[in-house]
Each structure stands twice: as C-alpha cells, then as structure tokens.
Amino acid sequence: MKPSDELLSIEKVTIHYETEDGIVHALNEISLTMKKGETLGLVGETGAGKTTLAKGILRLIPSPPGVIKQGRILFEGTDLLSLNENQMRAIRGNSISMIFQDPMTSLNPVMPVGDQIMEVVEAHTKNASKEEMYQQACDMLEMVGIPADRSHEYPHQFSGGMKQRVIIAIALACNPTLLIADEPTTALDVTIQAQVLDMITALKSRLNTAMLLITHDLGVVAQNCDRVAIMYAGQVIELGTLQDIFKRPQHPYTKGLLGSIPSLTKNVRRLSPIKGLMPDPTDLPPGCAFAPRCQYASDVCTRGVPAIYTLSDTHQVRCVLAEQEVNHE
Which of 46, 144, 226, 239 is most buried, judged by most C-beta within 10 A? Predict the structure, then answer.
C-alpha cells in the first residue's frame, strides 16, 4: 500500500480495563491498516475486542476503567492518541463516524429525528443558517429512504429498521472519510438486515467513504468487504483479501469458523463447531491464546506469542504453522 493511499494505521495498540476483579486484556498489541475507500471486515466472537478497537479509534474508551497502554492510531497521518479532547470532537462525526450496535438505544427518545441529524451538522458546519442545516437533515433522511416530512417525528414512531436508517443518516451527515459500523444489523430481522447493508454499501460508494465493518457474520463479510481481519482474544490472527480468507484460510481458528458454517452443497448430519470457549481476558494463557482449543497445538505454541508471518502481499497470519510453512518454502 502506498503511503498516500493509507487512511488509518493502527500500530501495536494495547488497551486494558483495570477493574477490582483484575486487569482485562481487551486489546494486545493490535496492528491494522486501512486505505481510502476500502471496506475492511473485522470478524470475531463476542469478547474478542472488536468494539474496544472501534471505541479506541474514536477515543471513546471509558476511563476509568479503560486505559490505552501503548501504541499509535494514525488517521490521515495524525496520531489520534496525541490529540486533546477538543481536537477529537472536531474529528468525531465529521471525519470519522460510528454506527453503534443497538438502534433502539442510540437515539434520543424526546427529540425529533430531524433535530438529531441537525445537531451533528451544527456541530461541524460553520456559518450555516438554521434553514440550510434543516435542509441538509431532510436531504440525509431522503438519502436513506425516509420521506423528509417525517423529520418532525420521534424515534418511537419508527420501526427498528427505520431507526437504524436514521442512525446511518446521522453518521453520514458530514460525509466522513471513515465510517465504523459496529454490528449495524444485530437487532434487525434478516430481510431488513439485507436492505440496511445494501444501503450502507451504496452510500459508502457514493460518498467514497472507507468502512470498518464489525461483525460475527461471515456471510455479511463475503458480500460487503474488500479485506478481512480475524480477531481472537484481542489480537488480529489472520488478515487478507476475501479470496485469501475464504479460499486459502491458514489459521486453525479461521478454518474452524468457516467449517462451522452450514453448506448449501454438502449433506451433513452435524455442524463442526470449534471446541471450547474463548479464554478469560483477565487470565490469558501463555503463548498463543487459541492453543487450548487448537487441534494442532504443540509445546512450541505455549512458549511465546506467535509472530505475524507474511504469506503473500495481501495475506498475513499469526501462527507457528505458518512459520513452518514459510521456512519450508
């Protein structure tokens, strides 16, 4: 990737939650890059650290108990971790926007939806009149398929899918360079999920916005993403294009995820789930965090955290099996 193409660079970021019950190792030296206009899918089980990463980018980690221990988050060349709160407010909602998980709790119940979109526009637009800001709010509602004359209505007058459209309108109101979508369809039924994702993808292309799509649904990733990062216990364990991950998976965890998906072509009696549970983030095992669940684990897996090995220009994996393959070649 050329430096001029790079939009976001996350470099060895570590985030802990320091609680009375112990230190939660939410993110452990995680590194990722994104280029302008691309869609990166971030996949992992509940508790893998996906939402912590999203909130870390926007500096929304609650402190206490959250502590960003180390690392850099470079957005368009600027380290977001070095900015003060006023500087971050200028970036949030303007250059970087986020669609949160639950549309039912993300909107103010006593404020018309049009006013909620206007709030974002007002915060980031200088010298605009109320009429201009209201018109922009109406335009955003129309863009997500909601008639402008419903701008005076309240959230309780909308269905779940329509509320999510309002949230998308709020997130895109200032034409951000990066959109973080944290499981944007979790609370919606399957038909509405497809409509919302199609709409996000279409608007992203229209506005040339890069998107970090956080999900646990590999089907959603296959339909909407350019590249995929697989997360496990606060680390990226495999990163590649759709072809790399779906056709040539290398990490045993990635293979397990793909193996647990029902097949449309094979007639099988049972699915093949990954045995065991993700480790307690307050007590991570030594070495590779996936080793206790891995059928290929050996003594070397517990001696230290595996390095990231580059298999091709687009494909990286954190596993000693990859090291053996690289050395064999």
Answer: 239
